[in-house]
Every structure is written in structure tokens, then in C-alpha cells.
Write a structure and sequence with these properties.
Blueprint: E1 4-7, E2 16-30, E3 41-43, H1 44-47, E4 51-55, H2 60-71, E5 80-85, H3 88-96, E6 102-105, H4 106-114, E7 119-124, E8 129-137, H5 144-162
């Protein structure tokens, strides 16, 4: 097992220390040919009525989707999941082919939108930001490069708070 890694959602059975190192936004993606492609925003309640392409259970993106649903008062069983897939790339492909809509990271979505595979819509009514963490296993060996990365990240975080 690695001594240091990045995570959005840490496993419950791991003794670890986490350090926030960034943030990213989740966005809704739809086919450019979808009837809602001209809209700018869509709410979670509106999304729950559309065919949906989801990440697999246990993924960080899936956990965030479930949080959005709960915050919006939507029961997760109301979501019309057409497919569960294990990668962002496969979700982009499914959405571009019109199988459904999905929620992915804005960074990945922008690349796909630039290639005209999908269209990005913002999520309304929820805070769609999520934190990215550097984590270290408290039970594992901590190599010199891993220690240096951790110290650098701690210093960068402290510097960012000052500025």
C-alpha cells in the first residue's frame, strides 16, 4: 500500500491523516444534442427526472451525488440510473451518445466540451465544490520522498492561508 496518495473520499478502514490540497467543482454534462443543451443551470430535482449515467457505488463522485440528492430533498431511489460506469471517460462517452446525463468534475468536463462531445450545465441549489486531500497511511512506511511531499504540501497550505 502506498504511503501517500490523493483522495476525494477516504476508506473507513484505513488509519490515515489528511491534508486539504485543493478543490474542484462538479458539473452536469449532457449531450450537445439534448433538448436542454441551451440551458445554463439545472437543479438536482430536475436532474432526478432525466435518464442518468452514474459512477459506481463507492466512488467519490457517487458519494457527492448522493449528498446533493439528500440536500435537495430527493430520495436517491428517484434517480433514473441507466448505467453505472467506472471511469469519467466512459461516462463522457455514454453521455455524448445520448444515454443520459451525468455529473463529473469540471476539469474533465471542460476538455470534453472543448472537443464538442458534451455540453456543461451548472448545478443550481447545491454547493457543487468538493475538496481534494493528500492522505498518508499512518500504519505504513514513510519514505523520504513521501515525507518531503507531505512537508511541502503542509508549507504550501500554510502559505496559502497567509495570503
Amino acid at each position: 500500500m502506498a504511503a501517500v496518495g490523493t483522495l476525494l473520499l477516504a476508506p473507513k478502514d484505513l488509519e490515515y491523516e489528511k491534508l486539504p490540497i485543493g478543490e474542484e467543482k462538479l458539473v452536469l454534462i449532457i449531450s450537445p444534442n439534448h433538448e436542454l443543451a441551451r440551458k445554463e443551470y439545472l437543479s438536482i430535482k430536475e436532474i432526478s427526472s432525466l435518464p442518468f449515467v452514474s459512477r459506481e457505488k463507492g466512488s467519490g463522485t457517487r458519494a457527492e451525488l448522493e449528498r446533493f440528492l439528500k440536500e435537495s430533498g430527493v430520495d436517491s431511489s428517484q434517480l433514473k440510473i441507466r448505467m453505472e460506469l467506472g471511469s469519467t471517460e466512459s461516462i463522457i462517452t455514454a453521455v455524448s451518445e445520448g444515454i443520459g446525463v451525468s455529473i463529473i468534475s469540471e476539469r474533465a468536463a471542460k476538455k470534453a466540451e472543448k472537443a464538442e462531445l458534451i455540453r456543461i450545465l451548472q448545478l443550481s441549489g447545491v454547493d457543487s465544490r468538493r475538496r481534494l486531500y493528500l492522505v498518508r497511511n499512518l500504519r505504513g512506511e514513510f519514505s523520504k520522498p513521501a515525507r518531503l511531499l507531505w512537508k511541502y504540501s503542509e508549507s504550501a497550505q500554510a502559505f496559502a492561508k497567509m495570503g
